[in-house]
Design brief:
With 395 residues, the protein is of the alpha+beta class. The chain has two domains: 294 residues, 4-Layer Sandwich (Metallo-beta-lactamase, Chain A); 86 residues, predicted glycosyltransferase like domains (Thrombin, subunit H, Beta Barrel), CATH 2.40.10. Helix content is 16%, strand content 36%. It has seven helices and 21 strands. The strands form three sheets. An eight-stranded mixed β-sheet has the order 6-5-4-3-2-1-14-15. Strands 7-8-9-10-11-12-13 form a seven-stranded mixed β-sheet. The longest helix is centred in the C-terminal third of the chain and has 14 residues. The two termini are 36 Å apart. About 4% of the residues have low confidence. The structure holds zinc ion (2 copies). The site of one zinc ion has 5 residues, from loops.
Length: 395
């Protein structure tokens, strides 16, 4: 990847309320929080859900050499879409707010229910007695609160941010962040059906490299039981991405009742309708480079534990990053209860489906296992000419 690079990390992707159900563990249970680092080093955080706590502990960990050497920018710009619990509940648990050397610029809209300094009031209220043991004065970091209206644009460093109101109960902002490395549009918590706001969402997403959209419900739920709840579906995301000419769609704000398998299903359907789609997944990192227009998505840490070394011959079929079908003979290196690490010559697309036929030795002789799984991690540096591909089996 050459030229300026913009890095987008997903720390929380779950909508409405955090989940700890093992069936939701692969995509992750923390509520919305994204981190965007622009090529000029400007650091943005999008929303303050419970994912913010995890991001904060990463920053303050002694192992984070970037902090010790002063590389990490002490100033951070935090864009808050709205004041529903799932987008603010990480704030009291964000350790960097309790360190006086840090400085934060918060951006959000004036709520008609709160008036001036809406976001500041929200923070004060959520930490007021008896809701939290210390009040906001314990947060010694420098904090500035900026009010942003729909249609407003401003620049931070080399980056241009545009905000638009999107359709959600009590209001919500969508943000467009144009960086020299590419354009990211973050539009969570929105429901289609208001013609003016639908049009504005398309304007906001116009030509975006990455369009992150609310995909909480199925198209069927959105048309019936969940109509008016303020959320969207993968199908609506595809429509907007198409109309707006966005390059990659990211399904976001997964329903707390959606299991990993259900999200797999939504992703599969979306991929049948649109070329480049990912389902937001905790730990996922997307790198964007403008010079060659490339996009790299990967999962830096494995979320599959309990691996056991193995050496089984297998035949694997799937699709490559470039969208071509492939089949190859290979070796399964590690095997776990739910997944495997497979050495492969082809580089499959992250989150794509993989079919694995594997011969395993058994007491009664060799046994052939046919498994279907999803690619959750790709480590291309593992071995010369091969990628180590992490797969979670679903059946
Ligand atoms: Zn939400
Ligand atoms: Zn909301």
């Amino acid at each position: 990847m050459s030229g300026p690079v913009t890095k987008l990390s997903f720390w929380g992707v779950r909508g409405s309320t955090p989940t700890v159900d093992p069936a939701t563990w692969r995509y992750g249970g923390n509520t919305p929080c994204l981190e965007l680092t622009a090529p000029d080093g400007t650091q943005f955080i999008l929303d303050c859900g419970t994912g913010l706590r995890v991001l904060g502990s990463r920053w303050t960990a002694p192992a984070a050499g970037a902090i010790a050497s002063g590389v990490r920018n002490p100033e951070t710009h935090i864009l808050v879409t709205h004041y529903h619990w799932d987008h603010i509940q990480g704030v009291p648990f964000f350790a960097p707010l309790y360190a006086e050397n840090n400085a934060f610029h918060f951006y959000s809209f004036r709520s008609k229910h709160l008036g001036r300094d809406s976001l500041k009031q929200v923070f004060e209220t959520q930490m007021a007695m008896p809701y939290f043991p210390v009040n906001m004065s314990a947060m010694t970091a420098k904090k500035k609160f900026m009010e942003v209206g729909g249609g407003d644009s401003f620049t931070v460093g080399e980056n241009k941010i545009t905000a638009r109101h999107i359709n959600h109960p009590q209001g919500c902002l969508g943000f467009r962040i144009e960086t020299p490395g590419g354009t990211v549009v973050y539009a969570t918590d929105n429901e289609p059906g208001d013609p003016k706001l639908d049009e504005e969402l398309r304007e906001l997403a116009a030509g975006a490299d990455i369009f992150i959209n609310d995909a909480q419900y199925t198209p069927e739920q959105l048309a019936s039981t969940r109509k008016g709840w303020g959320h969207s579906s993968w199908r609506e995301g595809v429509k907007v991405a198409r109309d707006a000419g966005a390059k990659t769609l990211v399904l976001f704000h997964h329903d707390p009742d959606s299991t990993d398998r259900m999200v797999d299903g939504l992703l599969r359907q979306a991929r049948e309708e649109f070329d480049s789609v990912f389902a937001a997944s905790e730990g996922m990192v997307i790198k964007l480079g403008s010079a060659d227009g490339t996009l790299e998505a990967h999962m830096p840490v494995t979320r599959t534990a309990l691996r056991r070394e193995a050496h089984f011959r297998a035949r694997v079929s799937g699709i490559t990053e470039g969208g071509h079908a492939f089949e190859e003979e290979t070796v399964v290196r590690d095997l776990a209860l739910q997944g495997a690490l497979i050495l492969m010559q082809h580089c499959p697309r992250l989150q794509s489906e993989l079919h694995v036929t594997m011969e395993t030795p058994g007491v009664d002789g060799a046994k052939v296992m046919k498994l279907r799984g999803y690619v959750v991690r790709i480590d291309s540096s593992e071995e010369k000419g091969h990628s180590a591909v992490g797969v979670v089996f679903t059946e």
